[in-house]
Design brief:
The complex is a heterodimer of chains A (about 220) and B (about 260). By secondary structure, chain A is an all-alpha fold. Chain A contains five helices and two strands, in the order H-E-E-H-H-H-H. The longest helix of chain A has about 50 residues. The two termini of chain B are about 20 Å apart. Classes of the chains: A mainly alpha (about 220), B mainly alpha (about 260).
Chain lengths: ~220, ~260
């Protein structure tokens, strides 16, 4: 009888020992499940903040196309007026010089103005391309920040920290302003002065001044091509 | 004092019984060990299978992310994307210009004073100017679409790879963690039986010794060729001293002396 008890006790002892280890392993598994849950939660929080997602009211959260379009618009709003102004000045200056040379109503004007139009359109196109590239760089920056935050999440395994950092990053990015530099002189006016001198030399009327200047009407010297 | 023969018989029976009990205890212990081993094997099998499923699932997620990346990086798809980006960018760039507008600055209007020839020439020159600008800007958009424009190949590829990396990294992180947790389960040692004293073996051995001695005493030949002697004439059987040797298997002090 005593030996039977001993055998049962032995069996119970073995099972208890194994159960203890299994419980430790189960506890480890539960902790791992919780860790994975935290990772998923943190990843979702970061994705919610960064990826474009449609909200209930139809608007979008995250960095959607509107965000980048606004950035491009700021870029263009800074440079376009400058180009327009430079074009305007150059166009006027050309007209004045042509008028001074007595060639306002001439094909020379068509040539010079057309050249300025080409310069202006090319410059505005280049600015649009640069704005696009800047928006692309901003998008890359957003992507890099998201990756960095995900890596931090893997390191800390704390979704709250990851979420707070993501919010701060989002605010920082949203306050990002394009690094805008003054455009400089982009319009090149043709050397109308040479034509002016030649005109003054060869045209006796030019020596008398610009005809019609007193009436405010442009001179009407046609230069046949 | 008992008769040696009786003592021998009783001891022999006792030894046999103790041997049987000892065997039973050993069998029980072996049975317990087997049961525990089977239970441990089942546990390990369950854990192994569950971990295998988890690993497969997570590997599947990583593989899906990788395949997604491969699909997005497919040259055909990249070319398609480049063409779309070129068209989109061309439109976006040209929209910022006036190349598609007839007379945005009133140049044609202002040239009317010079007559039809000048007006025609102005119109022709402006058309050429717009066409030149459009051509250059279209080429610019084309070049940009191969590089770092908003949806250009550079950004497209880095985004696709980042998406793929994120999916793979998350799944791998979880896979590694799961493997670590499985390591704990794998480390659960098989139960081992603690060696416990089995008194039956000692009892059997002692009784067998007593029985042997008693038989020897009972059937020992006499010195004069007689067959038996009275026990009183023999050396008193002092080995049988239960208090001294029962269960311990050694003779008492008198026997040793």
């Amino acid at each position: 009888m005593c030996m039977k008890m001993s055998g049962r006790a032995q069996r119970l002892q073995m099972m208890a020992q194994m159960n203890q280890e299994q419980e430790a392993a189960a506890q480890g598994r539960a902790q791992e499940d919780q860790r994975q849950g935290r990772l998923s939660e943190g990843t979702q929080a970061i994705n919610r903040l960064f990826d474009p997602q449609q909200l209930a009211d139809g608007s979008y959260s995250g960095f959607d196309d509107n965000f980048y379009n606004n950035y491009k618009k700021k870029y263009l709003d800074f440079y376009n007026p400058d180009i327009d102004k430079q074009y305007q000045n150059a166009s006027e200056k050309t007209d004045f010089q042509l008028a001074d040379a007595g060639t306002f109503d001439s094909n020379a004007r068509a040539k010079n103005q057309a050249e300025l139009v080409t310069q202006r359109d090319t410059a505005k196109g280049q600015i649009a391309a640069k704005a696009n590239t800047a928006a692309g760089e901003l998008k890359t920056q957003v992507g890099n920040q998201k990756t960095a935050l995900l890596n931090q999440l893997y390191a800390t395994e704390n979704p709250d920290i990851a979420s707070n950092q993501a919010i701060n990053s989002v605010k920082t990015i949203q306050n990002t302003a394009p690094d805008l530099q003054p455009l400089g002189e982009i319009m090149k006016i043709a050397a109308i002065g040479g034509a002016n001198a030649y005109n003054a030399y060869s045209n006796p009327y030019a020596r008398l001044g610009t005809p019609g200047a007193s009436t405010g009407k442009p001179a009407a010297y046609n230069v046949p091509t | 004092m008992c008769e040696p023969t009786t003592i021998a018989l009783i001891s022999a029976v006792g030894s046999a019984a103790a041997t049987g009990m000892s065997m039973r205890v050993q069998q029980q212990a072996a049975k317990n060990q087997n049961m525990a081993n089977n239970s441990w094997r089942d546990y390990q099998k369950r854990q192994r299978e569950a971990e295998g499923l988890r690993q497969d699932e997570l590997r599947g997620k990583a593989e899906m992310a990788r395949q997604q990346g491969v699909q997005e990086m497919d040259p055909t798809r990249q070319k398609e994307n480049q063409v779309q980006e070129e068209q989109r960018l061309t439109q976006e760039i040209l929209n910022n210009t006036s190349v598609n507008q007839a007379d945005p600055n009133g140049l044609l209007e202002s040239s009317k004073t010079g007559g039809a020839n000048i007006q025609n020439e102005m119109a022709r020159r402006l058309n050429v100017a717009s066409a030149d600008a459009r051509k250059r800007l279209t080429a610019l958009a084309g070049v940009q679409s191969y590089g770092g424009s908003f949806g250009g190949m550079k950004n497209y590829a880095s985004e696709a790879l980042a998406r793929s990396d994120q999916g793979i990294n998350l799944a791998n992180n979880m896979r590694q963690g799961s493997l670590g947790a499985y390591g704990l389960a794998k480390g659960v040692a098989p139960p081992s039986m603690q060696p416990t004293s089995n008194p039956y073996g000692g009892i059997a051995s002692s009784l067998a010794g007593i029985a042997g001695t008693a038989f020897g005493t009972a059937f020992a030949p006499t010195a004069g060729g007689g067959t038996t002697t009275t026990p009183s004439a023999q050396t008193p059987y002092t080995a049988f001293s239960p208090a001294a040797n029962f269960g311990f298997g050694f003779a008492g002090p008198a026997a040793r002396a």
